[in-house]
Write a structure and sequence with these properties.
The chain has 12 helices and 16 strands. By secondary structure, the chain is an alpha/beta fold. Helix 3 packs antiparallel against helix 6. It is globular. The chain binds 5-S-methyl-1-O-phosphono-5-thio-D-ribulose.
Length: about 350
């Protein structure tokens, strides 16, 4: 039995409404639970960039809804004008965040539906309305599918979790980072739903504090025992024998299993390896980029240094001292025990194992 208080019932990360795309503003959590409705695709792009919505699968859903919203409000009178609008919308959304491949995956999927429905319609105004409807339907399908995919990942991953003990996670790979339920946190939810006695240690995840602000918030809301630690405590608790397993999400996985995820994930993986603790990645197939042979090819987003030099709006570093802010790092596949997907679990050699999952 899955936890009946699953947080995708308690809040909706993102949804399509008649008025526009509605999102829970994650920059305001945990202090305030504010929902925003965007009526213009450029606002959706800005919401992705500024991390009102974040997490690879949620970014994918937002991008798909952004495309549908842009086309819905397009004033195009013929197919050529609508296609030009599609390109403009796709480009704006694609320029928001470079690492999470789900963004590009979603835009590509929307493009496929756009071209297909355009080719089936009369090239004038009435026919274009059904193209608009097709894109709205596809964006909503991407959302519903994402929740089902997370639940499937939960079923595959639950068996890998110990019967009892503490699981460490980094960043937020939960309902907030997806259409609902979560990837890494979905596996934990499913394991608890299956009767395992787990508790979670959440790394605070400097500098954006997804662990402190978001993971702690959604797990507490779901009555899953969660303890917050700062990032530099993980090694200590592993060495003390307090951590049974680590599970994280991913923003992009290369064909060989190398995994880009929130900055700091690599350090956690090395520490887990050093301490003989299994390190799991949970991600949908839409996060796996089989076009890249290895993780060195994954583009890493560099965000504003101000996110490092300031904490909750307070400057914590001397004026003028430069800071760096790579938002992600790449964990080499040799540190990854298994990758949990909706189609099953991949293990070394990942290139064969992942290819096999795509072929199913
Ligand atoms: O910068 P963010 O908050 O978008 O980064 C999110 C992560 O790194 C998540 O772990 C990843 O996207 C997986 S979410 C299921």
């Amino acid at each position: 039995m899955l936890n009946s208080h699953a947080p995708y019932d308690a809040f909706k990360t993102i949804e399509w409404t008649e008025e526009g795309v509605r999102m829970l503003d994650q920059t305001r959590l945990p202090a305030e639970e504010i929902y925003r409705t965007y009526t213009d695709y450029r606002e959706v792009a800005e919401a992705i960039r500024s991390m009102v919505i974040r997490g690879a699968p949620a970014i994918g859903v937002a991008a798909a809804m952004g495309v549908a919203l842009g086309i819905k409000h397009s004033a195009a009178k013929d197919a050529a004008e609508l296609r030009a609008d599609f390109e403009r919308i796709a480009e704006t959304l694609s320029k928001t965040r470079p690492t999470a491949v789900n963004l590009f995956w979603a835009v590509k999927r929307m493009r496929g539906v756009f071209e297909k429905s355009l080719s089936c319609q009369a090239a004038e105004a009435p026919g274009l309305d059904s193209v608009r409807k097709a894109l709205e339907a596809e964006a909503q399908r991407i959302l519903t599918e994402d929740i089902a995919i997370n639940e499937a990942m939960g079923r595959h991953g639950a068996d890998l979790m110990p019967d009892a003990g503490t699981i460490l996670t980094h960043c937020n790979a939960g309902a907030l980072a997806t259409g609902g339920y979560g990837t890494a946190l979905g596996v934990i939810r499913a394991a608890i739903g299956a009767g395992k006695k787990l508790q979670v240690f959440a790394d605070e995840t400097r500098p954006f504090l997804q662990g402190a602000r978001l993971t702690a918030w959604e797990l507490a809301k779901d009555h899953i025992p969660v303890t917050l630690i700062t990032d530099n405590m993980a090694g200590h608790f592993m060495k003390q024998g307090e951590i049974r397993a680590v599970i994280v999400g991913a923003d992009r996985i290369a064909a060989n299993g190398d995994t880009a995820n929130k900055i700091g994930t690599y350090s956690v993986a090395v520490l887990a390896h050093e301490n003989g603790i299994p390190f799991y990645v949970a991600a949908p197939l839409s996060t796996i980029d089989m076009s890249l042979v290895g993780g060195d090819l994954i583009p890493i987003e560099e965000r504003s240094a101000a996110e490092v030099t300031q904490l909750a709006g307070v400057t914590i570093a001397p004026q003028g001292v430069p800071a760096r802010h790579p938002a992600f790092d790449v964990t080499p596949h040799r540190y990854i025990t298994a990758i949990i997907t909706e189609r099953g679990v991949a293990r070394e050699p990942f290139t064969d194992s992942l290819r096999g999952l795509f072929a199913e």
